[in-house]
Amino acid sequence: MSTKSRTRSKTRLSRALGIPLTPKAAKYLEKRPYAPGEHGRTKRKTDSDYAVRLREKQRLRAQYGIREAQLKIVFQEARRQSGLTGENLVELLEMRLDALVLRAGFARTTAQARQLIVHRHIMVDGARVDRPSFRVKPGQLIHVHQRSEGMEPFQVAAAGGHVDVLPKTPGYLTVELDKLQARLERRPKRAEVPVTCEVQLVVEYYAAR
Predict the structure, then answer these.
(1) Whole-number Å distance between alpha carbons of 88 and 20
(2) How many whole angstroms separate alpha carbon 148 and alpha carbon 137?
(3) Which of 13, 36, 190, 191 is the most exposed place for a label (fewest CB within 10 A)?
(4) Is the pTM of this model over 0.70?
(5) Where are the alpha helices (DSSP H) in 108-195?
(6) Rounded to an integer, what distance in angstroms lies between the CA atom of residue 183 and that of residue 139?
(7) CB-based burial of residue 69 (10 Å sphere; 0-12 exposed, 13-18 middle, 19+ buried)?
């Protein structure tokens, strides 16, 4: 798929879900704050409870750019832990390496963060990690490989090129952008995670299946 096609796809999905999934999609949503298609402007009929829960689950999945099977696995883990399942779910997803690379400002989008990881530019505590789903533990250091620091995407990131389009760095992450490194200080708390989602609806979606 070409870059233009991916951008168009993300924009349509953003409009369908009502949330910006990329900085470009955010601009489109400002101009066209309604669903795509010829009936996008018309008033929709009231959604069923199932449709509301499904859309909320899709919102969460889209913001992390993961497959349904991946989300189900993390949900089952969240349910086994103590505390609220919905909050556990978001907190576990937020500890993915690709999510933290994005939050740190090393990448502009989740897709770019994933690409940087797969191409082995990202390290955790001195070891290369090429799995976007890698679970970072509190205290671990995320940093760019020394040989990759001079690449244009990382030079842009180090200069703060993504700061204006990304949410403010959350409190669970300490970032030294000029050094292209970030440390996960502790487990994220749901209230701090910059994700738009009614997590209880996601729990209800899976509970009913």
Answers:
(1) 23
(2) 23
(3) 191
(4) yes
(5) 110-118, 152-158
(6) 6
(7) exposed
